Each structure stands twice: as structure tokens, then as C-alpha cells.
Amino acid sequence: MTDASTGTTALADPDGPAAAGPSARGPRARDTVAYLRYGAGKLLGAAVSLFAVLVTSFFLFRIIPGDPVRTITHGRAVSAEQLEALRRQFGIDKPLWEQFTQYCGQALRGDFGNSYQLHDPVGELIWDRLPATLLLTGTAFVLYSLIGVWLGTRSAWRNGGLGDRFNTGLSLTLYSVPSFWLGLMLINVFAVGVGFIPGMFPTGLMETGDGSTGLAHALDVAHHMVLPVVTLVAVGYAQTLLVMRSSLLDEMGSDYLTTARAKGLRDALVRRRHAVPNALLPTVTLLFVNLGHVVAGQILVETVFSWPGLGGLFYEALSIPDLPLLQGLFFVFAAGVILMNTLADLIYPLLDPRVGR
Is-contact 296 232, C-beta < 8 A? Predict the structure, then answer.
């Protein structure tokens, strides 16, 4: 009887061995399974999206008017036989379905063919131009993310104040300005010079090409980067500021902030520890989308400043049209955005446990 009583007591005791059994680990295990299901769904969706991009990139650029062979041979005396030989060399004389199956087979192996105009493998051309794009857009991304989040937080916390009105008005103006137009204005004012303002910066390219090395070369590249980076930061920070400000304003009326203040926490501490982390989710989405665009670069800005990156390469390919190069660049651009969006989706449950359940 004592043994039975002891056994019953042990089972009923909340601090006994039963509390450490499977039932106690159940909620955590269920959360892990739910997150794995959530992550698998997002990864599957990313794979489907990448295949859709692969298909779209083939058909999208074939509706562009123009004959690549005639564009490449423009101004030269070529016979009809030579034109036909070039079409056979490029593979555009085959039926569309045969071109499509060949393209998909090669792309799945990471081979996007050779450029019509430059005659080099598309993968090598993209790899050669990628560092210049990452340097320009990556620098701009870091700057406008930090500036936008910081100013957006301050504007929302001092909603209606002079600083808030100034920041909001300026960001709305810059957000509505086309980036290429802003770049052209900066070139006219600070590169060419207007009135008493002398031309202080280069009008384009990435370096002077004077053979400098080391610190002198780094300073020369930084000098060329000023205007395109300012252009990208002006537009990017405006968007980040507006999203961060709106998200934080939605959180400011929440009960948990009132409770935190009632406990005697300083205003800066309430903002930093409680309000801002809960308002970051929409901003994180935007930042990851923008991070995906770092690989794509900014086609118009790179073209305006003659920056030797992927954006400028895409513009050059579009003018022919250079189909293999366009297809490869389009896939890389879209893949960067898709992968960053997927990464953001996988991080969401870590920021907000309610996501993915």
C-alpha cells in the first residue's frame, strides 16, 4: 500500500521525474517540427520560383524586336550565306522548342552559353563584372540601411516634431525622384560644375586608369564612387526611413510600452529594447529585398555613371539583343532577390515566434 501510495504520489508530483519526460519536451519538439515544415515549404517555393525565372528568362527576351545577327554585323558587307552561318553558330536557326530544351539543359548545369557580341562564356562575363557591382551597391546598401533605420526611428519617436516633418518631407521627395535623373543632376552640378560650384568629381567610370596602386588606387576608386553612391543612398534611405517610421508608429500605442514606462524605464531604453525590435519585421523584409538587389545592381545608375558592373553589362546586352547574356544576367538578378527573400522568411520565426506556426 505504501508502494502504491508512493507511486501515485510520484506520478502526481509536478516536480517528479514525469515533469522531465516527453510531455515536457513536447512543445519545443512541436515548435521544431513546425519550423522545419515552414522552412521546407519556403525552400520548395524558392526552387519553383527559380525554375519559373529560368523559363521566363528564355521567352521574355525573344519578344524584343530586333535581329541579333544583323545588329552585330551592322555596317559590314556580309552575304546572306554569312548571316545564315552566324545564325547556325548562335543556334537561333533551330525551332523555338529545340532552343528552349537546349537552354534549360545547359542552364541546369550552370552553363548559359557564350555572348553573341563578346564571344566569351556568360558565366565568366558575369563573374568579371560582379565585384564592381558589389562594391558600389553594397556600399550604398550599408549606408542607406543604417541611415534609414536610425532616422526612421527618431522621426517616429518624435512624431510631429520639426525633425520628423523635415525628414518625412525630404524622404518623400527623394523617394519620388527617378534615380537616373538624380544621377544626371549630380553630374551636372558636382562633376561638370555650375556657377560658383566647381567640378569636383569624375563624370563616370570606376578609376582614372593612371596605373596607381595601393592606397592611391583605393582613393581614386573611392573618388569615382562618391556620386553614384550618393545617388543610390538618397533614394534607398528614403524608402527605408518611411517603412521604419510607419512600423514604429504602429507599435507606439501598444500596451507593453505603457507597461515598460510604468516600471520606470528610461524613454531611450523603452525605444531601444522594446519598441524598435518589434517594429523591425517590415523593415527586415525591405532590407533583405534590397540586399537581393545588391547583386542586380542599379541598371540605370550604373549606365548613367558608366560604372563597369552588371547593370552596365545588362544595358549593353539589351541593345543588341545578346540573348545568352540577357538570360544569364536576368537569372542571376532574379535569383539574388529570391534567395534573399527566402532567407528573410527563414529568419522571421527567430524574430517573431508567431511566424511559421
Answer: no
| DSSP character at residue 121 | B
What gap in Å lies between CA 81 and CA 130, rounded to an integer? 38
Q: What's the pTM value of the predicted model, to 2 decimals?
A: 0.78
- The partner residues of 121 in beta bridges, in order of sequence, read 114
d(C-alpha 242, C-alpha 229), whole Å: 20
Length of the chain: 357
Residue identified by cell 546598401 is: 141
**Coil, helix or strand at residue 193:** strand
3 state SS of 114: strand
Let me know: does 179 contact 300? Beta carbons within 8 Å.
Answer: yes
Question: What amino acid is encoded at 45 in this protein?
Answer: G
The three three-digit cell numbers of residue 313, written as one number: 553589362
Taking only the tens place, the pLDDT of each residue in 143-173 is 999 999 999 988 888 888 898 899 999 999 9
Using the 8-state DSSP alphabet, how is residue 190 labeled? I
| Amino acid letter, 211 | G
CB distance 117 to 72 below 8 Å: yes
Percent over 70 (pLDDT), the chain: 89
Residue bearing the bigger pLDDT, 11 or 243? 243
Per-residue cell: 269: 531604453
Coil, strand or helix at 1? coil
Per the CB < 8 A criterion, the answer to whether 35 and 349 are in contact is yes
- pLDDT tens figures, 176-230: 888 889 999 999 999 988 878 888 888 888 888 777 788 888 999 999 999 999 9
- The runs of H, that is alpha helices, within the chain are 2-12, 22-60, 68-72, 80-90, 96-108, 122-157, 162-176, 179-186, 214-251, 255-262, 267-270, 276-296, 299-304, 310-318, 323-351
